[in-house]
Each structure stands twice: as C-alpha cells, then as structure tokens.
Amino acid sequence: MNRPKRVMVVGIDGAVSHIVEEHIKEGILPNFKKVYENGVKSLNSLCPMPTITPPNWTCISTGAWPVTHQITCYWRHIPGTTPTSSNTEMNFSGERIKAETIFEAAERAGKKSLVINYPTSYGLHKRLKNSVVVGGSGLSVGTIQDNETSARLGAPYSGGQLFCDDLIVSSRYHPGGILTEMKDAGDWKNVDDMGDDPMEIEFDVLFAKSPFRMKRHTWYFLVRDMNGDGYDTVTLSPTRDFRDAFFTVSGRQEWSPRVLTKVQLEDGTEKEVAFLGKVLNLSDDGLDFDFYLTQMLNTDGDLWCFPREKAACLRDIDCVPTTKAGFLLRLLGWYDDEMFSQLIEMHNRWLGECIVRLMRDTPDWDICYFHTHPTDSVYHYLMTELDPATCSSKEANEHAWEFHRRLYRSTDAMLGKLLEEVGDDTLVILVSDHGSKADGTTFNPTEALIDAGLMVVDENAEPSEAMKTALKNLSPEQAAAARKALAEPIIEKSKAFPQRSCFIYVNLKGRYPGGIVEPEDYYKVQREIIDALYTYVEPRTGRRPIALALTKEDALLLGMGGEQCGDVVYTCYPEYGAQHGPILSTAKWGIGDLHTMSVFYGPGIKKGFEMERATQLVDIVPTICYMMGIPYPTTCEGAVLYQAMEDPDAYTVK
Questions:
Q1: Parallel, antiparallel, or unpaired: how do β-strands 588-589 and 592-593 relate?
Q2: What is the Cα–Cα distance from 38 to 25, expressed in whole angstroms?
Q3: DSSP 114
Q4: What span, in angstroms and rounded, lies between the C-alpha atoms of 527 and 525?
Q5: Could you tell me which residues come within 8 angstroms of residue 645 by beta carbon, excluding any fewer than 6 positions away?
Q6: Which of 74, 327, 411, 438 falls 20 to 30 Å from 634 in CA-CA distance?
C-alpha cells in the first residue's frame, strides 16, 4: 500500500487555476508545474455559497458544509439583534465552528497538526492538545480581524495588529498615517558626522489598536545630507543617542535590516518586537518625505502562536509577516505597486520560512494546513485590469499581468521550498477557497426590496460623512440611487432586510427587536422576497441580476442553513458584483472563473490525470482521512475522491 506518511494542504486564496496554468506554460512556475503535471487536477472543483473566505476554508478543515459548521459568511449576524447590515461583525474565530475539524479527529489517533495562518483557526488551540496553531484570526499572522476576539482581548478595534499597525510618517496626509514636518536636529549624541544642516522628526508610535496596554513611545528620525548634494541618509532611533539607533539606511527605496527591540507595557513589563523600515520618498531638500515601518510582531508568540514556546524557532526569520500583504495600505495610497509587490514577497518569504521551521521543530507532525492570501488581494485590486474585456487600457492590462506574474513567482518560490522540505512521502494538495472574476455592474438587493414595498427607508435622512464621501463624485441620478441603496431601514416599517454577502432576513415578530411579520406570514414573506429579487431589473443594464434565490429551507441544497443563515439566500449572475461572494462557483465570465483550484500530488495519487467528476471542498478531508488511515471528523459530510487514487482499494480496511 502506497499510503502517504503526511499531508500538506497548500491554501492559495482566490486562485484561478487556468490562469496559473498559463504561467506554467510560460515557464515561470517550475514548482506548480511539477505538481500539476505529476498529480491529479480536478476540472470541476466547486465550493459552497457564498464564494467567500471564512466559510470555505472551514469546509476544507472540517469536511462539513456551512449548514453544519455555521461559519456562513465573511461576517456573522450578531445574535439577538435586528438583522440589518450594521449588526454584523467579522467572522474569523475557530471557537464558533460547530463541526469537528480534521485536526481534532487526527489527535484521536495520536497525530499532530500544524495549522498556520489559516482563516478561522484562531481559538482552535483550546480544542487541541498536541498541535500547533499560528495566527488564524485574520488574513495574516499578527492581525486580529475577528471582532468578538478583539473585544475579549480588550482591543478597541478589530482589524488591527497585536502591537502596532504599519506606520507611515510623512509630510503629506495619508489615511491612518502620521502627518508631521522636518525640524532642525536636536542635540544628538555619539554621531560621527551630522552632515550639512541635519534635520529630524519626532513622533509617537501608534499602539491605539493593540490589545496590549502600551506606554507612550516617542521615536526619532534623523535625516542627514552627507555629501552636500541632498538629504539621503535616514536613521531611526528611540532616543537622540546614535548608539541606540535601530537602523540607518542610505539612499531612497532601501529596506532596513529587521529590527529586534523591546517595548514597554503600562505595567512595566517588556515585549520584544520585530519590524522593518523603508524610505519610500525623500526629496533632496528633506521637506517632502514618506518613511514606512511594518507592523511590529511580538516575538514571544503571545496571542498569535499556540503553544507560545513554538514561536522561539521563528524569532530569527529575517523579515516579518506583512499586514494583509500590503493590500489595504495600497488602496489607501500609502505606496505604489512596486512596494505592494515587495510586501507580498515578504509575506510569502516569512510564511514559507515559518512553515519550514515549525516542521523541523515538530518533526513528528502529520498534517500541515496553511493559507496565503495575496492572490485574493491582487484579484480584488487588479482582476478587472487583468481581463482584456474589462481593462481600462492596453497599458493597464500589461501592467496587471506583469504584477500577476511577480505574485505567482513569489508563491512558486514558497511552494518549492516546502516541496523540498516535505519530500516524496507527503500528500500535497493545492486548493483555493473560491475563484475570481472582474468587477461587474453593482447590485444591491436593497433596491429590489424597496421597490417591492418590503423595506422602507428614510431617503431624506441626512447622509453620514462616509456616505457623503462616497456620493461626491457621482452624478445626481447615481447619487440618488446610491442613497437609496445605502440608507438605513426604518425597522418598524420593514418586512425584510438584506445582510452580509447573500442573505435576506424576514423581520419576524418575536424573533427580532422591532419585528413586524407575524409568524403565520413567514413563508409568504419569504416568497415575496424571492419574487422581488427575480423580477427586479437593474436599470443600468436593463437585465435581471439574480441567478438563483431560495428559501432558507431550500438552501440546504447548497449546503446552507442554520442559525447563521438568512431566511432567503440569493446568487447573482457573474456579470454583476465584485470578484466573488454572492456568485455560484460554477460561474465563468471573461477570463474569470469561480471554480476552485484543486490539485492532488504525492504517494498513491495518479500522475498527469484530469478528474472530470464534480468535486467539492468538503471532499478534501474525507479523502485525506481515507488515504492516511486516520479517523474521520464526526461531522464530516464530504465524499472520498477515489478517482484521484492509483489504487483506491488498497486503502480499504480488510
């Protein structure tokens, strides 16, 4: 029997398999080529509704559908509240998973798992005894995106870092940045050469989002003109003593070495943190500048590595995990695409090194699950430009493809490092949680519900500041439609509310505060909602955007239901909406494809085989368990993919 000794699940968020194959043909992805050409590729790999991150990675770790594990969307409805869009929170806590994970099932057989940067794994360490969990409460290690987890830890805001968000210290305004100006340098000590007319910046490090209570930390940038031809030498220090300096970089666009330093908490204790810095921009006269610092990650593993002592083997990695691989800060305009690419590469370099070190530190590991997110971020950022049918120009299309090639070269390098580490006795599975497509026409179900009289809003209410910002560049007609779509409902007059990516809720009396629908009218209102969705014509296209709408009870056909499911579940045609979410995983549009990547490689797997049967993300866990001879999770609902195996009968217990 050719039974795998171990399994490594390589999670590549949002990956579109046929685009990866194009790069394989170009010869730039040798490690993907090895897996694709010597393994089994699923041609019809599907995922549940909605096609979105937390629920689908949970399917991959449990073998259960969302109706069972109850991570049903990127966000969750806060129990006990009226199901409007405002009563939601991000949904990354493994403690909410109602199904048993493969990691728990494997531990029943004495097996150990490494779960690294895997969405919805934060908190699973409380259910595991011998496994390692790193990150999981967001899209990158050190990020806490789960609201409930943030509140429990005392963090004032979800979506921040454990210690310190990325910082930009600049002469111009950047959202979330530190706006300041150069001043003449103060009395610095132990500097051999201050150059001509030295200047400095004094700033407070921002720990506002951290669950740790930090003392005030004031740091300094010393900026020098060392050759008389412009300011080009930058030093960061916690004091005006050069002996304490964290780093000095000469020349613009240069990264600092990784910094290790200790920061103080209010209670007097200290934490060692790691970070890097870079000069993004510095004019010759020193007055125009952008200085960037990555997130600070505490090296002791507190709140991000379980058990904490496993973080010791990661301390000397020469970089840090980057915040969502730089995506959000690129959208905020902190830096350009070159910098974004560098942060993606740093993300994959840290993640790959982290996995290898944990494998070596835990040599008796049996299962490794990890996830890398930059692919999904890049599709949100550039998929519309990647598609020739939707790009803004030939130049934008060419730039997007070069950016995409660089993204996958980085991912391929990480994959190669891991393939070399695990050897030939390991089952390797490449998988994505969903695919991606270009931006389509915007669709908001609010408009359909208002038109049908199911939802009532105050269209004359003064818009919020956020809405004013969103409306200012729209035409009067567009602004009126947007105000209608974004308006808050009048709860006591509304029968239904849209919420999250694909749900409509009935405002049922006795179930929600302010409910007005009588229980005996529940099914009637469900049908009214479905009728309103199907008959709604989007005014800009003159077409109906809804592909499928089901009652909660009928949504069981899609593996959806339970307390965290709306009363109606809907999907859109792929020419509507953003990259993924309320779109079926069978959908294709342009070069976009919502099918998932699903490739199997290793002992017992056929070589160079294309599997035509429809496969589901929930099939991965039972296939692993069958081939490795470990217990199935008690709530596992998927099927074993016998067709991928050279000899499926070999694993049958006699």
A1: antiparallel
A2: 15
A3: E
A4: 5
A5: 604, 605, 606, 627, 651
A6: 74
**Whether residue 477 has pLDDT greater than 80:** no
Q: What is the DSSP letter of 77?
A: E
C-alpha span between 145 and 562 (Å, rounded): 24
Per CATH, the number for 6-64+99-151+301-437+593-651 is 3.40.720.10
Question: Residue 651, Cα to own-chain centre: how many angstroms?
Answer: 36
Tell me the pairing of strands 218-225 and 196-204. antiparallel
Pairs from 454-457 (Cβ < 8 Å, separation ≥ 24): 454/494, 454/495, 454/496, 454/525, 454/528, 454/529, 454/532, 455/489, 455/494, 455/495, 455/496, 455/497, 455/498, 456/489, 456/490, 456/493, 456/494, 457/484, 457/487, 457/488, 457/489, 457/490
- Owner of token pair 């009728």: 531
What is residue 517's DSSP assignment? B
% of the chain at pLDDT higher than 90: 87
Strands (E) across 514-608 are located at 546-551, 568-572, 588-589, 592-593, 598-601
Residue with tokens 């049903």, as numbered in its chain:
72
- Residue 577, SS3? coil
- Domain-wise residue ranges, the chain: 6-64+99-151+301-437+593-651, 164-294, 445-577
Report the first-to-last Cα separation within the chain, whole angstroms. 12
CA 519 to each of CA 217, 477, 508, 511, 553: distance values in angstroms, whole numbers, following the listed order: 57, 38, 7, 9, 15
Q: Residue 609 is encoded by which pair of tokens?
A: 């085989």
122-133 confidence digits (pLDDT tens): 999 999 999 999
Among the listed residues 190, 168, 186, the one whose alpha carbon sits nearest the alpha carbon of residue 178: 168
Report in angstroms the alpha-carbon separations of 422 from 253, 256, 305, 379, 627. 36, 32, 22, 29, 17
Three-state SS for 392? Answer: coil
Tell me the per-residue pLDDT of 365-400, one tens digit each, with 9 for 90 and over: 999 999 999 999 999 999 999 999 999 999 999 999
pTM (two decimals): 0.95
